[in-house]
Amino acid sequence: MVVIRTLIPLLKGLAFTIKHLFVKPITYQYPEQRREVSERWRGLHRLKMDDGRLLCVACGLCEAVCPADVITVERTETEDGRSFPSRFDVEVTRCIFCGYCQEACPKDAIELTRNYDFCEYTREEFNLNRDQLAKIEEA
User: Fold this and answer.
1) How many domains is the chain built from?
2) Model pTM?
């Protein structure tokens, strides 16, 4: 009786192992193959452009709504009254990727891309400025 109680779990474990022996493994050859992420994934920030100009009008709502206080915006106006950010900085290392900045923007000028594989050698390289944020592509 003791032998049967010991043997049944052993056979179940062996059956599970044998079943997975013939299943193709799920492996990605990164970076050649990239894992698909959900549509709801929030990654690296990006400032959108239209006809070579930033959509951002430097209203400061993204800066005000950010719970981690990672966005810094300084506003400048042109002679014709159009405003734009003279400074737009994001500290990516402190960001919690909540998406509030994207939701608060009235001009839909900032978005969190689906880019999940951003890496640098120093923390300072994660402090992105306006020009760097405008050059980021969707992953």
Assistant:
1) 1
2) 0.75
Which residue range forms the structural domain that includes residue 84?
40-135
- Tell me the per-residue pLDDT of 52-69, one tens digit each, with 9 for 90 and over: 899 999 999 999 999 999
Averaged pLDDT score across all residues of the chain: 91
Q: How far apart are CA 126 and CA 38, in angstroms?
A: 24
How many angstroms separate the Cα of 42 from the Cα of each of 16, 19, 32, 38, 125? Answer: 36, 36, 22, 9, 20
